[in-house]
Amino acid sequence: MEYEAVIGLETHVQLKTKSKMWCGCPNAFGADPNTNVCPICLGMPGVLPVANAEALRLTVLTGYLLNCEIPRFAKFDRKNYFYPDSAKNYQVTQYDKPSTARGWVDFEFSGLGAGTGPDGLTRVRITRAHLEEDVGKNNHFDRHSGVDFNRGGVPLLEIVSEPDLRGPEHAYTYLKALTDILVRGGISDCDMEKGMVRCDVNVSVRPKGTEPLGAKIEIKNMNSFSGVRRALEYEIPRQIAAVQRGETLRQETRRWDDVAGITEPMRSKEDAHDYRYLPEPDLMPFCPTDEWLAEIRAGVPELPLPRKLRLVREFGLPAGDAQVLSDNLPLGQFFELAAAGFQQPKAIANWVINTLAAKLAESAGAVGDLKFAPAELRQLVELVDGGKISLKMAQEVFAEMFASGEKPGVIVEKRGLAQVSDTGAIEKLCEEAIAANPGAVADYRSGKVAALNSLKGQVMKLSKGKANPAVVGDLLAQKLAV
Ligand code: ADP
Ligand code: MG
Ligand code: ZN
């Protein structure tokens, strides 16, 4: 019998706020142990938490970025447990009334599990995203252990996916897509090495084509995105082999050992916690107003993938160009301003992606510091298009625009670069070239078509490179035909 994996991810991300969730302590990484603490985040008796408005805003913004609903009533709950990492003996979280729920993430993916979304994209549904506080960190030394509460009370968002994932690569790509969205949205820096993202992976197997879910096995302790993938690459075959041997898998939590590359049992269903959730009495329910939601909604940035699809749709760009112009937002914005209403957006995209990007890289410059405006790049493309200057000259003009910010038309005038398209003037030069090169003329007339190029070269030389080569070619062919 063939088996398939069913995977759901619980992803915790640290919100990018200046201060912690309930107090004014800095939300900062890397400080000496227990230096960013106060009576509130140490859970002293009698203190009162005050919710961090920026954390609430980032939570709602995440909801919008993940296509979630934002209920008008959410609340906080205490999850009770006894462990040294929480001095309060409970963690404040959202239990039955989370701040956001029922959304999805669409991303590009082509492996096992792909194609569940619109436009050929792959969709993973989001069950909920709720706000909670981080807890302290236990550090173990040779002969003793210590608790660092710097991280205690830091705002976290737990983003729970539906069990929509089917394989290691699928889960890895989803995690990348999700965190890319959060980084772009300014929600979190999502640096997994700094512990800003932690991910629990839930995985089960079932006979392919069947509906019921198998026993859920939760894997913890992955500390990189590729760790998540490797853990699944190990765990899925392990589960399939077990059921094929006739074993019945039981719900359990396993620990990923990154060095050994294996998962090992941590705790089973028998020691499952009863957290005795209860509403947090010290915090008001969170009831966002329509005005506030509208304000946050208006600030939702366009994400790279929808942006890429729009650039393809609106400007007819190839996917590769649209990718570059959505990955690099300033470059893309410059392109859009230059190409708006222009009939040849592809020509502008070429300039932006090749020439402009290269120049910027060379000079370690930023789009924001450019000395010329997007409309001036369009003018340059129009000069080439109208046959006023050659593509080669345009490169020179561009270099000058980049260096001095001078307008392309002015540079062309000043340097006398304008290409001569005036047939009268070019005709004279053609006649000169024909008279001076009887050999080439004879060759051409005897059928050696390539001889035209040498004549063309002569005319270009006579014009000091300013003649419009297309006009020269046409005129020479005309004259030699008679
Ligand atoms: P809890 O953490 O409260 O037990 P759930 O079990 O409902 O919550 O879900 C936790 C995560 O596990 C979710 O991402 C969900 O999609 C996933 N999940 C639930 N059941 C299974 C299963 N049988 N196999 C794989 N993943 C599952
Ligand atoms: Mg869980
Ligand atoms: Zn504090």
Task: List descriptors.
single chain, 482 residues, alpha+beta, Arc Repressor Mutant, subunit A, eight-stranded mixed β-sheet, three-stranded antiparallel β-sheet, binds adenosine-5'-diphosphate, binds magnesium ion, binds zinc ion
Q: Would you give an account of this structure?
A:
The structure is a single chain. With 482 residues, the protein is of the alpha+beta class. It has 15 helices and 13 strands. The strands form three sheets. It has an eight-stranded mixed sheet with strand order 4-5-8-1-9-10-11-12. A three-stranded antiparallel sheet has the order 3-2-13, with no helix packed on it. It has a two-stranded antiparallel ribbon with strand order 6-7. The model has no long low-confidence stretch (mean pLDDT 94). It binds adenosine-5'-diphosphate, magnesium ion (MG) and zinc ion. Zinc ion is lined by residues 20, 23, 25, 37-38, 40-41, 153.
Overall, the morphology is elongated
Which molecules are bound in this entry? adenosine-5'-diphosphate, magnesium ion, zinc ion
Radius of gyration: 32 Å
Number of helices: 15
Query: Biggest sheet, strands in spatial order?
Result: 4-5-8-1-9-10-11-12
**First-residue to last-residue Cα separation:** 81 Å
Mean pLDDT: 94
Q: How big a fraction of the residues is strand?
A: 15-25%
Number of domains: 3
Number of E strands: 13
- Major sheet size, sense and barrel closure: 8 strands, mixed
Class per helix and strand makeup: alpha+beta
Q: Residue ranges: pLDDT <50 for 5 or more in a row?
A: none
Order of helices and strands, N to C?
A: EHEEEEEEEHEEHEEEHHHHHHHHHHHH
Provide the helix percentage.
Answer: 25-40%
